[in-house]
Amino acid sequence: MVSRDELLKLLHQKVKSKNLIKHMLATEACMQALADRMGEDKEKWGLAGLVHDIDYEETKDNFDQHGLVSARMLEEMGFPQDIIDAVKAHAGKKEPTTKMEWALYAVDPLTGLIVAAALMHPSKSLTGIDRDFVLRRFKEKRFAAGANRDQIRQCEKLGLTLEEFIDICVKAMQGIAKELGL
Q1: Residue 102: how many other CB atoms lie within 10 Å
Q2: What CATH number does the domain containing 37 carry?
Q3: Coil, strand or helix: which one is 175?
Q4: What is the per-residue pLDDT across 16-71, written as a single tens digit (0 to 9) for each?
Q5: Is 182 part of any domain?
Q6: 96 φψ region: left (φ > 0), alpha (ψ -120 to 50), beta (else)
Q7: pLDDT tens, 126-136?
């Protein structure tokens, strides 16, 4: 399996959108924080978050392939099957069954909601928001409408309340706010 540094180089080759790279970094941070909270493998969960959209730009015009192209790529690089399965599950190509799969499935839309909340806050930063601020935005159906609330609520499959889940992810993203430009 490749190192995180090698993976970042590959991501920058495959993904031209800076915002998509930031989304993957945010997902990595959230997945690491969740793994830490649940006593799981922090590095492995983080890698799943980092690579989950590696094929996004390649498959955006043929979205039924999203996740499958990533899976083939990751298999060729020698990634563990559980990371490959989590990537497939986040893209709806398999039903999530493990904690890592459910976590990635629920985190993916939450990072976008958190970024949108930060951008609409007067501070325009992650440091200006907290769990309650994001939770209020979560309840506004029109706010960040693309962030699938039902998918985010699947955090309950991890034994976490929505409040706990949002809190963990907000804090994780605040920890890399500089990298995210927020």
Answers
A1: 22
A2: 1.10.3210
A3: coil
A4: 999 999 999 999 999 999 999 999 999 999 999 999 999 999 999 999 999 999 99
A5: no
A6: beta
A7: 999 999 999 99
The total number of structural domains in the chain stands at: 1
- Provide the token pair at 61: 């015009």
Cα separation, 75 vs 47, in Å, equals: 14
Q: 70: helix, coil or strand? A: helix
- Whole-angstrom distance, CA of residue 68 vs CA of residue 75: 11
Neighbours of 9 (CB within 10 A): 12
Query: What phi and psi values does residue 172 have, to the nearest 5 degrees?
Result: -60, -45
Residue with tokens 């309650």: 132
pTM above 0.70, yes or no: yes
* Structural domain containing residue 49: 4-177
